[in-house]
Amino acid sequence: MENQVPVLFFMIIVLVFSSSFASEQHYTSAVGDPGMRRDGLRVAFEGWNFCNEVGKEAPDMGSPRAADCFDFSSSSLKHRVTEADNKLGVGKPFPGLSPEALNNTDLYAVEKELYLGSLCEVQDNPNPWQFWMVMLKNGNYDSRSGLCPENGKKVGPFKPGRFPCFGDGCMNQPLLYHQPTDFFGKDKIRGGFNGTYDLGSIRDGIDGISFFEVVWEKRVGVGSWVFSHKLKTSKKYPWLMLYLRADATKGFSGGYHYDTRGMMKTLPESPNFKVTITLDVKQGGGPKSQFYLIDIGSCWKNNGAPCDGDVLTDVTRYSEMIINPETPAWCSPNNLINCPPFHIDPNNKKIYRNDTANFPYSAYHYYCAPGNAKHLEKPVSLCDPYSNPHAQELVQLLPHPIWAEYGYPTKQGEGWVGDPRTWELDVGGLSSRLYFYQDPGTTPAKRIWTSIDMGTEIYISDKDEMAEWTLSDFDVLLKSPTL
């Protein structure tokens, strides 16, 4: 018996060590630049109109796709993208451009992104990757233009309604100015994009006009890149969106119906991933700022099959955690139409929305169903049919104790102005339990997420609003298979 004690003790030590080692090896990064720590940065810009297309280029700006990608050495930055590349616009050829895209504004932007991606691409295992993506979107919609499809179907002009538009040209692309990354002081590097939708106004200050800015800065060899964002609305442009995205390196990113480029070399699947990020909100952007601590997007059909580019049957799926404490819960016992049909708690128990004693109404801002779904449970609110190239589904969340197990905010104000935090979010675990519509009797969709982003959507503000925030340490971590 005495001889067995040292053996038992040794076995315990081995088990403890093995468990500790396993926990350290638990996750691997899905992105090409884990935690934003490479000195050689890859970042790109994309401008969208209301229906995630271009429509018309801004004067002398080229197609609204640009990139700032460089390799770093101790004394210099070797840029891979020239300003001539960034100014490419319809009618100007570049390597790989198809004949049908040369004079088609929307197709040109698609292929320009692929071209910029080829210039920025980094070979890696298991796949190459290209860049972080700055996404800017204009919420103005001229319903008389016939530019945006309705749940993927081409429709003609119709009378103006709830969408903002000051008249002809309201769906324009912005003026875009680029400050190429360069040394700033002895050991810092900095670059950025900025601009305005108010054509011809940027050099006269930003009072009374729209404005956006993203500046990236890093100390050489130390820590993470810090991305500083500003977004300002105006009377003419009251609905604007600005995000920093980790997108798929190939295939459809969230909100796209064509091949894209991005940072995620391996796509995360629910429930086996988490997201880490440091966020510091300086200004909130007013009561209509739906600031997303995290926004995830993907695409699958109502029968659970992956999207294949058929805009009539593909459906973009989004889940968004809104941390602006001024955002109310539209979902309530008296407004079941704004709630998902049921909630699934961390123990996989379904709680139906008419269970007023147990359903966590204040955990949901809004739920809306895809407009092409055929077996919806009423009452139901249908998502806006115009703002994506095909039908969409939205699950918008609010801070609530029910999300505590996943590392999300549990009460209003957490992570907001004056409360900077580094978050470790079990995005995979939470997204595996959210309600998304699916046709009865079909095989459940694989919830594989092609876009993960953070930023704000200032939704039809009543006055000029400014949002300002920084983020860093962005990473998407995949759970390793159990040994």
Report mean pLDDT, rounded to a whole number. 93
Spans of 5+ residues with little confidence (pLDDT < 50)?
A: 1-23
End-to-end Cα distance, whole Å, is 33 Å
In terms of quaternary structure, the protein is single chain
Major sheet attributes: 10 strands, mixed
Q: Strand-residue fraction?
A: 25-35%
- Largest sheet strand order: 4-3-2-5-10-19-12-13-17-16
Proportion of residues in helical segments: under 10%
Give the strand tally.
20
Order of helices and strands: HEEEEHHEEEEEEEEEEEEEEHEE
Number of helices: 4
The number of domains is 1
| Net shape | globular
InterPro entries: DUF7705
Domain DUF7705: 28-478
Signal peptide: 1-22
Organism: Macleaya cordata (Five-seeded plume-poppy)
Compile the SSE list and pairings.
Elements: H1 4-24, E1 27-29, E2 42-48, E3 65-72, E4 77-79, H2 83-86, H3 105-120, E5 132-138, E6 175-184, E7 188-196, E8 211-219, E9 222-232, E10 240-247, E11 273-284, E12 289-299, E13 315-322, E14 342-344, E15 350-352, E16 364-368, E17 391-397, E18 421-425, H4 427-431, E19 451-458, E20 466-479
Parallel strand pairs: 2-5, 13-17
Antiparallel strand pairs: 1-20, 2-3, 3-4, 5-10, 6-7, 7-8, 8-9, 9-20, 10-19, 11-18, 11-20, 12-13, 12-19, 14-15, 16-17
